[in-house]
Amino acid sequence: MPSVRRVQLTGTSTYTVSLPKEWAKRKGIGRGTRLSVLESAGGSLVLDAENAEAEAARSREEKICVDQFKPDSLRRKFIASYIAGTGRILFYSRNALSNSTRQAIFEEARRLIGMEVTDETESSLTVHDFYSQKELSVSRAFGRMHLLVGKLFSELCSTIKRADYESARSLRSRDDEVDRLKFLILRQLNLALSDTRVLLAMGLASADCIDYAVATRNLEHIADDVVEIGTRYYEAGTASRLSDFPARKFESACVEAARQYSVVVRAFTESDTAAAESVLDYKRRSGEEYRAALNEVSQHQKKVPVQYALMLAKLDNSIANYCAEIAEITLNRNGRLHEAHKAGEKE
Q1: Residue 126 pairs with which residues in a beta bridge?
Q2: How far apart are CA 110 and CA 106, in angstroms?
Q3: Over the stretch 260-283, which tens digit does the pLDDT of each residue have?
Q4: pTM
Q5: Which of 144, 160, 264, 308 could be stapled to 323 by a disulfide with Cβ–Cβ 3.0 to 4.6 Å?
Q6: What does DSSP say about strands 88-92 and 61-65: parallel, antiparallel, or unpaired?
Q7: Residue 170: phi, psi to the nearest 5?
Q8: Are strands 124-129 and 88-92 parallel, antiparallel or unpaired?
Q9: Are 171 and 193 in contact (CB under 8 A)?
Q10: Which of 134, 222, 150, 136 is closest to 186 using CA atoms?
Q11: Residue 339: burial class (beta carbons within 10 Å; 0-12, 13-18, 19+)
């Protein structure tokens, strides 16, 4: 139950309200303590001790004993701590760190934006986060991630148009940067949801954080699917070069999927309802086109490698679905904004 406080008038122009004693004790607030007062987008006030940011930074420290982890599970633990907003991580062993463990930590630190190894001993490694929360705009990071995925799509379409099977295999090397931005965005969103000051500094509401998190995950999945399609295309070229069927049909399907991807990201970032609805229409159409293309493939099984069926399935069952989910998020968010605007007009 909320604690109700009565506002008092002190003098002729100052309003005062008492603070809950238990909260003040937890925050170390006493006579003379300076409080920061922030106003949220919804008009509510957020109070905190002026040194709370430094205390929060100190609390985001973690010690990890590597003896209980294999290299792959240690990487996952590292990523989880990073997304949780840990500012300093001490990896240590009761004995000497193995070369494989040391290498896994260094490699993961290079993959995570802002993380640097600052201290190293025979039995420990210390990693610090040097990326300032205040310098990160989630919308800009999301836009950068979108451009990278769009570049992957563009290279895939160009590769198919040239029938350049070898180049299709190289798409995988371009996927790492997408993952780095995904981890950074998820980390910042997690911090925002756990710290109102970060949320206010980002200019987002809690629901916006959820929208960005889901959309970011979908962009990563789309990038993974584009890379897999490139791998399958390389395999198809290795298996058979006797006929370009259904290469032209498949090329046009990839180009259209790339266009719809661009449309849905624009719909999300610009709150464009019409664009979001057009992507949902495309999802309904793509299912019919996929079945028609798959039927043609099945009629030419001796000429067409099986990889074409797998690639078509990725375009329809995965990429189109991820785009449709981003479109749904956009429509839901626009609905929330519309309702909030109506409520504001009534007031």
Answers
A1: 90, 119
A2: 6
A3: 999 999 999 999 999 999 999 988
A4: 0.78
A5: 264
A6: parallel
A7: -80, -5
A8: antiparallel
A9: no
A10: 136
A11: exposed
- The predicted pLDDT at position 199 comes to 79
DSSP string, 155-193: HHHHHHHHT-HHHHHGGGGGSHHHHHHHHHHHHHHHHHH
What would the two tokens of residue 239 be?
Answer: 């298996």
Distance CA 232, CA 309 (A): 10
100 three-class SS: helix
Place of tokens 């040097």: 130
Count how many residues are written for the chain.
Answer: 347
Q: Which two tokens stand for residue 101?
A: 């463990």
Calpha distance 211→179 (Å, rounded): 18
Output DSSP code: residue 35: E
- Sequential DSSP letters for 237-265: HHH--S--TTHHHHHHHHHHHHHHHHHHH
CA distance 331 to 99: 50
Residue-wise pLDDT for 34-65, tens only, equals 776 666 555 666 666 655 554 455 457 899 99
- The first and second tokens of residue 199, run together, are 């949320």
CA distance 167 to 83: 33
